Amino acid sequence: MSRCDLEVCGEAANGRQAIEKARELSPDLVILDITMPVLGGFAAAQEIRKFLRDVPILFFSIHESRQSIEEAKLAGGQGYVSKAQAGTTLLKALDTLLDKQTFFPGEADGLRPNGT
Question: Which of 2, 5, 27, 30 places its Cα 20 to 30 Å from the Cα of 100?
Answer without folding.
Answer: 2
